[in-house]
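Form 12-C: Joint structure prediction
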Amino acid sequence: MAYRCDLGGERHRFPDLKAVLAAASPLRSGDELAGLAAASDAMRVAARTVLADLPLKTFLTEAVVPYEEDEVTRLIIDGHDAAAFAPVSHLTVGGFRDWLLGPEADAATLAALAPGLTPEMVAAVSKLMRLQDLVVVARRCRVTTAFRTTIGLPGRLATRLQPNHPADDPRGVAASVIDGLLYGAGDAVIGINPASDDVETAIALTTMLDEMRQHYAIPTQTCVLTHVTNALAIIERGAPVDLVFQSVAGTEAANRGFGIDLAVLAEAHDAARSLNRGTVGDNAMYFETGQGSALSADAHHGVDQQTVEARAYAVARAFRPLLVNTVVGFIGPEYLYDGKQITRAGLEDHFCGKLLGLPMGCDVCYTNHAEADQDDMDGLMLLLTQAGCSFLITVPGSDDVMLNYQSLSFHDLLALRSLFGVRAAPEFEAWLDRMGMGAPEGPARLLEAPHPSLARLFDRGDAAR
Amino acid sequence: MKPDPDTLPDGPLRTDLTQDDRWAALRRATPARIGLGRTGDALPLRPMLDFQLAHAQARDAVHAVLDVEALAAALPPHPVLRVHSAAPDRPTYLRRPDLGRRLDDASIATLEEAAAARAQDGGQGFDLVFVIADGLSAKAVASHAVPVIHACLALLDGYRIAPIVLAEQGRVALGDPVGERLGARLSVVLIGERPGLSVADSLGLYLTYGPRPGRRDSERNCISNVHGRGGLTPDLAAAKVAWFVREALRRGLTGVALKDGIEEALLEGEAGRLPGGSP
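Section 2 - Result
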């Protein structure tokens, strides 16, 4: 169905719903690259005007990616909870925005509503919201998940400790883990991106992380972020897998580009849960997403990148994840050009994920060919923390020496803790207290009785290289 | 990353670990920026400036202009051609990877003239063409492309090699239309890799058999990390190129199917010099 809007003496036409959604999106390089961005700023406002008057129900009957061609669309439509949707089913997208900002939309109401919302609905309403709206509404959402720590409690901010090493050297990884623990990072997960995609390496790292966790009795979960089919092989081999990781996208074709489909994710989810390694909960999946991934796989079906991204959250929520985060600035300037676009996208992704009921975190990050720097990351991390972000990714000194991009540092976490009073997950916080990590002599204890891989390092003095 | 112990403040998490021998041992285990110390909750000034310098160098490498004149002067006696992608400038290049994979009109004419001249002289088609493109680090090209080319040419005696093509604002896939227009059986693209904070001048090489627009990345072979900070040397990169050239032309393909075998081939007599082996 075509849409049109007369605005400011101009007539704007949109051939279909996905054209309206694309034109309504704040400007970003990925939509320009795809040829989907509004041709003018006035046209962008016209698209938003069309969107504002559109009944939310439209998204239940008009799919942006055809139902017959795409299993993600089928998941969204077949899994829709009409009863949960009922309280807002009479609203337009504009009316929904006002309702979200009004007094009715409290934590309990939003949690009950989540199964009634589709990714396209939340993407659409986000396009009618400014940054502060995205922060205000996301902050009201309460999504709690658990494995060995509880993620998403009020007043808490968890972190992934990301100890990557360019050659997957277990001692080098251990050194970065210790550095992060000294700052109190790692309650969401201690999670490595391996440089190699080889199963043996992943088993060695999984085993090392688990030994380290047990050695220091740290209540947290570990993860080697390797392909889900590798994780299945690793579980088969009996390695101590806590969380199973996978990158996911918002269309069947883009997921095929990642070498996955819903069936293999279901298989992995079953395998992860069968290990039964959680102590305070059984959320055992970890997903990453990012605007631009579908376009880069040429699998976006003419849908704007923010809407496709929100569809990835429908994939994620089908598997009750412990953690989901957008790697917002990682994919490059052809999708998000500068600090302004990265900031906007980070808050959109967090908002959409939370509204759909996901434990949403963010890798606040950028590459060296984007027009961004650590100042932009400061802004985004402050906004996300105000928005009640579930967890943030942290690396030593903001510099990921394996993936060659910049994220947040452990220092940034300390700043957020003292600025906003946000605390670590309760189980992990108790461990920090037990270890006396708040006291001057506390951190040294980690080295007094070092993990064997570290002890060897100390003995050899000049160890690794 | 040598944190200054004097900048360490009092307060929670204060630690003398930065002065601890054991901490020095940890630092040797990883190039990551660990044990930086603290000023309040913040990074001390010196590591902050170290970080800013590394980021500045990476950005300068991304935005540096390729000195085509200097390259053209360093390559003779081998003939040289100059082309430009359809991305007119760096901001467009960064936003529009599709334009960086296509030739502009003048470059198409240049290559067609060269191919026609070759045919008129009765010369046979080219076995391979080297394309040197700025990519995301003109600095990498300026530092390593010429020695790599000379080392390759020394190992590829007897092959019919096209004029070396110097490409501005080019992506890897620009080698596809270049190879097609020149009628080369194989293209070898030397290109600046995306700079990281530790290495801003790393060169990558991509080989594509039967170059033509539309080739997928899985149909290419890549030799990456040619740089001076523990990366691949020009001689070893050239040895890999020579192996790939010989095998690609013999078997009529590049890509995933060709990858197997090179490690073993190069390991013979060169044990311990391979990247990706034990450091």
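Section 3 - Comments
The domain at 11-140 of chain A is CATH 1.10.220.70 (Annexin V; domain 1). The longest helix of chain A spans residues 199-215.
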